[in-house]
C-alpha cells in the first residue's frame, strides 16, 4: 500500500467521522424540536445513542488503521533499506567479477587439461573450456604422453 493510498484511506475515514458527527448534531437538534411526545423522544434518544456509538467506533477504527498502516510503512522502509544494501553488495561483487582473474597456469591448468582429456573430450573442446589455443592443449597432451612412454 503506497503512502498516497494510505493518506486517501485516512482522509476518507476522517470525512466519514465528521459526517457522522454532523448527523448526530442535526439529529439532536431535531430531537429537541420533536419533544412533544414521550415515545418520539425515547426513539430519538435511542437513535442518537446509536449514532454516537458509531462515531466512536469509526474513530477507533480510523486510529487502528492508521497504526497498522504506520507499522506496514515502517516495515516497508526497513525492507527497502535491506534491499538497497543487498543491491550495493551485488554491485561490489559484480565489479570484482568483472576484473576477471587470469586463468590458472602451470600445474593447475595442466591438471584440468588432463582431467578433461580423461573424460574423453577432444583437444578442441578442452581448448574452448580452458580458454587456450587448441595447439597449446595438443602440445601439453603430447608432452604428457611422451613422459609416460
Could you give a short description of this structure?
This protein is mainly α. The protein contains five helices and no strands. Helix 4 packs across helix 5.
Order of helices and strands: HHHHH
User: What general form does the structure show?
Assistant: rod-shaped
Structural class: mainly alpha
Based on CA atoms alone, the radius of gyration comes out at 40 Å
Helix content: over 70%
Our measurement of the CA-to-CA distance between the termini, rounded to an integer number of angstroms, reads 75 Å
The whole-number mean of residue pLDDT values reads: 79
- Identify low-pLDDT runs: none
Query: What's the main sheet like?
Result: none
Number of DSSP-assigned strands: 0
Count up the helices: 5
- State which percent range the strand residues make up: under 5%
What would your notes on this structure say?
- With 149 residues, the protein is mainly alpha-helical.
- Helix content is 85%, strand content 0%.
- The chain has five helices and no strands.
- α3 crosses α4 (123-130).
- The chain is rod-shaped and about 120 Å long.
- The mean pLDDT is 79.
Keywords:
149 residues; mainly alpha; 0% strand
Write the layout of secondary structure elements.
Layout: H1 3-33, H2 38-98, H3 107-118, H4 123-130, H5 134-148
